[in-house]
Structures are given as C-alpha cells and as structure tokens.
Amino acid sequence: MSLWCVQGGRHRLRKLAGAALCALLAAAIFGCGRIAPEGIWEPTRDDTAGIMAAVAANEGYFKTGIAELAMEMCDTVLPGTTRTLLNDELTGNRFKGRFRLDGLQHVFDTASYALKYTFIAGLDTLSQETTCTVTLAETIPGKVLMHAWQKTNYLYDSEIVISPTETLRLPFYTDSMLPCDTVIEKPLNGASIEGCVLKKMDGAWQLWKLAGGGRFYVPGPDDAPYILYLSLKSLDNRVDTVNLRPDTLHYGIQRFYSADTGLLTYSVGDWVQVTGLLTNQGDAWDYVYFNGKRYEYNRAAGSDTVKFDSVTPGIYRLSLEHIPAPVLWENEGDWNATVWSIPIRIEGGGR
After folding, report:
1. Nearest 5°: CA angle at 261, between 259 and 265?
2. Beta bridge partners of 290
3. Distance between CA atoms of 350 and 310, rounded to whole angstroms?
4. Which residues have C-beta within 8 Å of that of residue 192, sequence separation ≥ 6?
5. More confident residue, 119 or 342
6. Residues 150-163: what's their mean pLDDT?
7. Model pTM above 0.70
8. Phi/psi at 26 (nearest 5 deg)?
9. Burial 8-46 (b: 16+ CB within 10 A, else e)
10. Bridging pattern class, strands 166-173 and 72-73
C-alpha cells in the first residue's frame, strides 16, 4: 500500500511528543481509513506544502482554550466530601503543607514551542477521494498559579529515627489553616492528543473532519485522572452525550466528524447544562471553559450552565478540566488533570 508519513510544520503552538506516537495514534486512535494499493497515487512536494498550509490555517481549531488571561476567582466552598477529607488530612498527616485557594490561572509557554505533527495521506479505493489524517501529539509546558487565602504554617523539622544510623527530617505544619495572601505555583507539563482529516478538493487540501474532541493529559495519559463521558443538555431538553469511545448512538472523542455537518451544533444565545459527568475521581474539582470564560461544575447539583453568547457563528471549543482535589490543596507536587476539548459549531439566529 502507498503510505506517506511526514513530520513537519514550523508553527506557533506546541512541540511534538514523538513521531512514533503520532503514527500509532493516527492508526489506532483515529484510524487512517483505506490506503490505496501501491502505485495508484503518489503525493508530491506540493501536497506536503498544501497539507502543512491547511493545518496552519486551521490551527485555532486545535487549541484547548483553558488558558485564562488573568487570575480568576474560584468558589471557596469545597465540593462533595472534599471538606471532610481535608479536615482529616490536616489532623492525620501534618507533614504536608496545605492551602485553600480563591483564585486560579493557567499559563502556557506556547511562544517557544512549534506545532509539529505527523500525517498519513492516501487514496480511498472506494470513494476515490484523496484524504489525509493528521495527528497532533505534543508536550505543552506551563504552570498554574493559585492564590491562597488560607494555609497551614510551617512549625519545625520533625526528626523520625529510622535506624541508629539514619534519621529522617520532615517539615511539620499546623493542624489548622490561618489567613494568608500567597500565590502557590505548580509546574504544568501536559500531553495533548488531537486530530483532523483533510481532503483534496479541486486540487487544494482543505479541512474536512475534526476529531470529536481533543484530550489534554497532565502529566500524561498513564498518570492523569480518567473521564468516561459527559452530557450537554439544552433548554429544549435535547441531550448530547459525549463518550470517550463512541458507539452507534452517541458522539465520541475518538472519532472524526464532518466539520460542516457532523459537529455538535447550537445557536448564538443558546444555553446548555454540562451534566452527567462520569470520572474515576470522586473527590475532584471540575471547570468548564468556553470563549475565554471559566465556569465551575457543581458536583452537588451535578451540572453547570454555559451560555453561548458574545460570539459570532463559527467553530469553538467547549472544554472541561477534571482535577483531583488534593492537587488544589497540597503545596507540593505538580499539576495533575485531564481536559476534554470538544469542538462545537455555533450558528446564527440564536434565541
């Protein structure tokens, strides 16, 4: 079969996690369709340039959209059983510093990292269409800033005798939190997985399909929490369920959909409830992002409402970030989270 794999693209977004990973993801996660028998079609240098140009022209569709422009307020009410767990931690393990936050900001270092990707192009022997599956798998560095309004105070180093020749010294903290005005910074280095399909029409490569969603794992797919599905419920009681793996009835992250007709579609001014979130972390904080705004998912209520306002018709990203609760109360440790970033089409004529 004729298989064409190219790594390329000097663009502004991100850095390639690995060419082998990209090729594997293109075939195993999204699928590359039918590839033409040897000799049926041979790509040219112009095809390479055209594919790179098409990805560059549409790179805005691949952004997760969770980077705040400034520190934004957070609800100081702890969700679910988190308050009880934190109280137990404060009294049961005083060797860790902890805090309560009321502000949060993600800061990504995208300026110094170029977007690179792998693509596989071929001729579909059934439809005779020339298509190209593009997989983006990159590492995005950054940090998260959290404003603490309460924190435990360091008291002294506690000595723990392990053996006659070995003594362990650990910091020891208060068992209650005191008022403060402190910014806690945690490193954020995440692996992003995204994809699309291009089609050659009238001699030019154009965006044809988008993946049902991009995934952003911090620090990586094996260590990040797990999201299984969520639902979007509109005012007319229409429910769109988004699954990790799609079936014949439901929309899924791991499938390609027509950028023109296959995406989840709403109108300017519509409201949706993000609801039915199923994850592997019971005690967690969840945030929903749309068009530069952040919303807090209320786990007690089981939903959050997002309005598609202040936008013009087009394709946008609705993102959900799932964060284990200890990440947001322990001083030490890197950021740990999973983000689903779902492309949605917003049409005019909203109500």
Report:
1. 90
2. 293, 318
3. 11
4. 14, 64, 136, 137, 138, 139, 140, 214, 215, 216, 217
5. 342
6. 89
7. yes
8. -60, -40
9. bbeeebbbbbeeebbbebbeebbebbebbeeeebebeee
10. unpaired
Cα–Cα distances in Å, from 306 out to 52, 288, 302, 310, 319? 34, 8, 14, 12, 11
Cα gap 312→296, rounded to integer Å? 24
Question: 90 to each of 95, 101, 152, 173, 198, how far by Cα in Å?
Answer: 9, 16, 9, 9, 53
- Distance, in Å, from the CA atom of 101 to the CA atom of 105, rounded to the nearest integer, reads 11
Instruction: Judge contact between 79 and 134, C-beta under 8 A.
Output: no
Q: In what order do the strands lie in the sheet with 227-234?
A: 251-252, 239-243, 227-234, 271-279, 303-307
Task: Summarize pLDDT for 93-144 with one digit per residue, the tens.
Answer: 999 999 999 999 999 876 666 666 777 766 665 667 788 888 887 777 889 9
The verdict on whether omega for the bond into residue 164 sits within 30 degrees of 0, i.e. cis, is no
- Closest residue by Cα to residue 35 from 115, 118, 106, 132: 132
Q: Is the pLDDT of residue 61 over 70?
A: yes
H-helix or E-strand spanning residue 56: helix 45-57
8 Å CB contact between 242 and 342: yes
Contact 288, 295 (CB under 8 A): yes
Which residues pair with residue 302 across a beta bridge? none
Question: Distance between CA 199 and CA 105 in Å, rounded?
Answer: 38
Q: What 3-state DSSP class applies to 90?
A: helix
Tell me the per-residue pLDDT of 209-224, one tens digit each, with 9 for 90 and over: 999 999 999 998 889 9
Round to whole Å and give the CA distance between 172 and 93. Answer: 9
Report the chain's C-alpha Rg in angstroms. Answer: 23
- Say how far apart CA 297 and CA 286 lie, in whole Å: 5
| Predicted local confidence at residue 72, as pLDDT | 92
- Rounded to whole angstroms, the Cα distance separating 155 from 275 reads 43
The total of other beta-carbon atoms located within 10 Å of residue 251's CB is: 21
Please give the Cα distance from 299 to 104 (Å, whole number). Answer: 19
Token couple for 44? 């040219």
